[in-house]
Amino acid sequence: MSSSESSTPPMPKLKMSKLTNTIPEQLPEVPDLENPDYAAIAARALPLLKERLDDYGYAHSLYAAQTARDLAVIYAAEGVDPQDAYLAALLHDWDRGLDRETLLAEATTIGIELTPEVLAAPQILHAHTGAAQVKHIFPNTPDSIITAIRHHTVGDEDMDALDKIIYIADMIEPTRDSAIVHTLREQVGTVDLNTLFLQAYQATMLHLIHNRKVMHPRTTEVWNALIMKGMPTLDYHADNK
Ligand SMILES: [Fe+2]
Ligand SMILES: [Fe+2]
Question: Cα(162) to centroid of ligand 2, in Å?
Answer without folding.
Answer: 15
